[in-house]
Amino acid sequence: MKNHIEINSAFKNDSPFFNQIILNYDIGGTPFGNQDRNSLKLFQFKGMTVNVKSFRIPNIINQIAYRFFRKSKAQRSFEYANKLTQLQIGTPQPIAYFEYGTPFLFKKSYYISEHLPYDLTYRELTTDLNYPNHEAILRAFTRFTHNLHKNNVHFLDHSPGNTLIQLNNGDYKFYLVDLNRMNFEPIDFKTKIKNFSRLTIHKSMVEVMSDEYAKCSGYNYETVFNLMWQSTQDFQEKFHRKKRLKKKMKFWK
Fold first, then answer.
1. What angle do CA 95, 53, 124 make, to 5 degrees?
2. Superfamily of domain covering 4-114
C-alpha cells in the first residue's frame, strides 16, 4: 500500500508542518483526554491548537478490509467533517488525514482537526441535573439533533462525550466529534427517535428532549416519549448485558 496523505486545501502550504508532527507523533505534542482506545495529542500551529487522533492498528481482518474494501476511520472522519461543514453543522475544522500500510495490510492512520475550546459536553448534563440553564441547553441540543435529522445526518455515535458545547451567554453552539460512524441518507421516524437512546439514563431528560423534539417535528409528544424512553431502556439493558458477559468471560480466563 502506498502511504496516503490528504490535506485540506486551506492548509496545503503548511503540509511540511503536518508531515513533521505525524513523523514525530510519538515524541511530540501534549496528550489529551482518554488514551485507552486511540491516542489524542494537541499541537500548536500559528496560534491555533490542532488535535491529532492516532487510531490504533486494527486487527488482522480489518487490516485487510481497510486495505482493500473499506475507508479507514481517519478518511471517514475527514470526509464526514467536510460534509458536515458544507451543511453548516458544527464540527471542528478538518485539516488532514494520513494513512500508512504495506502492499497487503493497512496499518496506522491519523486524523488532524482544529481543537475547539468548549465549556462542557453533553455528559455533564447527565451527571449534574442542576447545571445552570440545564433545561435550556438540553432543549437547544434537541433542536441541534433535529437539524441533523432534517439534513439526513444519522450520527451513529450520538453518545454523551461526542458533542462539545459552547455556552456563549445563552447562544448555545454544538460541535460533533468522533465522526467515523455516520450515515448521510433519509432517516425514518423510529430511527430518528432511537438516535437519542445512548445519551442518558434519566427519565426527566428524556421527557424534555421528547417535548422539544415533538415541537420541532410536529409529532405527538406521547408517541415521541414512549419510543425514546423504550429505546433508552433497551439500550441500557443491552449495554449491561454486554458488561455482564464480559465479566463472565474474564472470570473464566
1. 105
2. Phosphorylase Kinase; domain 1 (3.30.200.20)
